[in-house]
Fold this protein.
Amino acid sequence: MNTSGNWTLANDQPIVAFATHTYTLVVNVSMNLNGGGGDDQYTSCGEGTQVPQPGQGLYNYTSIDTNNDGTPEDDDDACGDLPALDVEKDFVSAALQANGTYNVTYTITVSNEGGVGQYDLKDTPGFDNDIAINSASFTSNAPGNGGGSLTLAGGMWTLANDQAIAANGTHTYTLVVNVSMNLNGGGGDDQYTSCGEGTQVPQPGQGLHNHTSIDTNNDGTPEDDDDACGDLPALDVEKDFVSAALQANGTYNVTYTITVSNEGGAGQYDLTDQAGFDNDISINSASYTSNAPGKRRSCRIGPWTLANDQTIAANGTHTYTLVVNEV
């Protein structure tokens, strides 16, 4: 049979009085929603029309002509749907834990715009090379797949295997990855690369880049995929000596600037300062000002705490000016 146009299942087929002939038509098809030649949008039976129409789902029309005049004496149609799955991935948060690690959370949504189906769901972390994965787990509302711990195999986590999904169903997965970051000889390049840095579009090897793919027919080729990227805070501190200004009483006001810059996501920090002057120098007083919210105060004899649990925005910069009076 041809793969396009009309199929002729019978021609001048005799049939006796009150008889019934039954035909079973089997059509082998493939679907590609990623540049396969169609509009990449699955339209299910009756979508927007209530009554199924040609161009929707697996719409199929049959007609019968009993006198060879080219006009059907009767016809009928039927429509069914292939599963048409879509996956969406979102970065939710990177939450600092008491032990200094971060719990990084993503949501993954699998939605089916078509008929009953199944899928495999795999997830691939592609973090900055200064970030180490300590553990990973997930929860889900997918039937029979409530979640559990995850182990990397081939660089991927498997969140679902042959997972059944109902027509027009939606499954939601919450993925939590516990990570640590070390920018001081931890095994990476000691340079944090944020999402989209130098590329505009986030890529593997940046920030907390994470890729999810879905395979609906076990052929090993994903029918859909999505990625998400978020950033850990990546703080850097720089300190500069500014001046030692003689005062009228013979003491000196010694000024330093301290700059805290964040190349990553929103975070927090503690900032302490320790004087290590020559032992012939005495500290009379110290104070500082800052553009960090709520920061301006005098200090006791060091070490000095200039900030405690100070929040800082993504890509934010805080500047501290420290003035020590000494003799």
Remarks:
- The mean pLDDT is 93.
- The chain has three domains: 1-82, 85-228, 235-326.
- The radius of gyration is 33 Å.
- Residues 85-228 form a domain with the Immunoglobulin-like fold (CATH 2.60.40.10).
